[in-house]
Amino acid sequence: MASYTQEDDDHYRSEFSSSYVVGSFPKDFVYGPDDPDQDITTILSPDQKPKILLMGLRRSGKSSIQKVVFHKMTPNETLFLESTNKIESENISNSSFVQFKILDFPGQIDFFEPSFDSEKIFGGQGALVFVIDAQDDYMEALQRLHQTVLRAHKVNPHLRFEVFIHKVDGLSDDTKIETQRDIHQRANDDLIDAGMEQIHLSFYLTSIYDHSIFEAFSKVVQKLIPQLPTLENLLNIFISNSGIEKAFLFDVLSKIYIATDSSPVDMQSYELCCEMIDVVIDISDIYGKDEGVQVQFDKESSSIIKLNNQTILYLREVSRYLALVCILREDNFDRQGLIDYNFLCFRNAIQEVTPSASITSTPPSTTTHFLLTFDASLILLLTSFCTLTEEPEKSLYVAYGCV
């Protein structure tokens, strides 16, 4: 049985880890430009990507949400946005897991009129996000929400419904709770009265002035990722064998976390990780080399931030737009080589479960089994799963080290 010594630790540290690498993230972090001349037929044409439909009354904050989350617009800049007067479509295609189309609908138009094709709008896999202005009288918004949910569910029973109780930054904590309770109660009572109690609505308190909008969108996007249970299991195995308290798998551009381990998400921890990503990108932009459009990906890019409460934030790139951000105690970071080796195993497993270029509209039949065997000096991780093509594959990862 092999043992893990300090010499081995130094070996793995030198071989698998790197200090902070300036220029870790590409500077050309932008989503594809919208085509303002697209007609509605092209926008709503059926494809294999899931759709996120942003709906709500006028001035509820739909466009501001999209610009802040997916275009890095500051909240203050959204004050100058004009009202949306036509459907705006955008393809979000960063990593293999973050693949969807987001549609921003004008609040003043009824898309259930005969002139619109409801099948094209609501058909396929996706989610409907209805935005309610919490600072306004929301009775009309609740009525529109009820009508929209009933009609959309009739067209597509598999559509997910998410309700953003938005602009809560101007409300006190007690008012936030009371507003959410009232909207939740009224919306579900309306569904029960209509005999549609089987429809599930998810509610989120959101604001563009804090990280609540990013966390809410993270929950929405996660429901569109068929591989989510596999990713969560991989993260659970990784943190349990690396002395890590919390880990997030981030889409770096939007700061949406597409997966995390099974422990509860603490909002402060999530905000810390988001701030770390901002710091890495900003420093990379200031001090990084100008590499032009063809930015080369450095698989060893990483960043370490030590806080004054003996906590460490550790970031490692998984792919061009995916990064793993971990929170751990400083004394658990003594054997960084073991953590880095476990990260390599984790990254290889992520590549194994990465979906193919063609995204199916229905969740694949995926089976995941994990066999974890512990010894004083042996970690054995066996993952067996079916890919999107339903071809069974097996990967064996062995890491030596004391747990």
SSE diagram, text form:
Blueprint: H1 6-16, H2 40-43, E1 51-56, H3 62-71, E2 88-93, E3 99-104, H4 118-122, E4 126-133, H5 139-155, E5 160-166, H6 173-193, E6 201-205, H7 212-222, H8 228-240, E7 246-251, E8 256-260, H9 267-287, E9 302-306, E10 311-317, E11 322-329, H10 336-353, E12 368-375, E13 378-386, E14 392-400
Parallel strand pairs: 1-3, 1-4, 4-5, 5-6
Antiparallel strand pairs: 2-3, 7-8, 7-11, 9-10, 10-11, 12-13, 13-14
Helix pairs in contact: 1-10, 5-6, 8-10
Could you list some keywords that capture this structure?
14 strands, six-stranded mixed sheet, Rossmann fold, disordered C terminus, five-stranded antiparallel sheet, Beta-Lactamase, alpha/beta, 403 residues, 10 helices, single chain
Number of extended strands: 14
The residue fraction in helices comes out at 25-40%
CATH topology of the largest domain: Rossmann fold
Q: In terms of structural class, how would the helical and strand content be classed?
A: alpha/beta
CATH class of the largest domain: Alpha Beta
GO molecular function: enzyme binding; GDP binding; GTP binding; GTPase activity; molecular adaptor activity; protein dimerization activity
Main location: cytoplasm
Catalytic activity: GTP + H2O = GDP + phosphate + H(+)
Subcellular location: Cytoplasm; Lysosome membrane; Nucleus
Describe the protein in words:
This is Ras-related GTP-binding protein C. One of its GO terms (cellular component) is Gtr1-Gtr2 GTPase complex. Keywords: Cytoplasm, GTP-binding, Hydrolase, Lysosome, Membrane, Nucleotide-binding, Nucleus. The chain has 403 residues and is α/β, with parallel strands linked by helices. The protein folds into 2 domains: 6-28 and 226-352, 2-Layer Sandwich (Beta-Lactamase), CATH 3.30.450; 40-222, 3-Layer(aba) Sandwich (Rossmann fold). It has helices at residues 6-16, 40-43, 62-71, 118-122, 139-155, 173-193, 212-222, 228-240, 267-287, 336-353; strands at 51-56, 88-93, 99-104, 126-133, 160-166, 201-205, 246-251, 256-260, 302-306, 311-317, 322-329, 368-375, 378-386, 392-400. The strands form 3 sheets. The chain has a 6-stranded mixed beta sheet with strand order 2-3-1-4-5-6, with helices on both faces. The chain has a 5-stranded antiparallel beta sheet with strand order 8-7-11-10-9. A 3-stranded antiparallel beta sheet has the order 12-13-14, covered by helices on one side. Strand 2 and strand 3 form a beta hairpin. Helix 1 packs across helix 10 (336-353), helix 5 crosses helix 6 and helix 8 (228-240) runs antiparallel to helix 10.
